Amino acid sequence: MIFQRVKLFYLYTKKRLRVLLTQAFPRKSLYQLTRLMQHLKSATPPY
Known about the structure:
By secondary structure, the protein is mostly helical. The chain has helices at about 1-25, 25-45.
């Protein structure tokens, strides 16, 4: 139950972060950041 809530919160925060970063960064940094996010996503253990 609590894991599901944490997962939802994590997904929501990630979405918010992506929106904020899209507004804040130019294209090149955004591309590098997307690569970093994908790397982190593959590195983090699934709930």
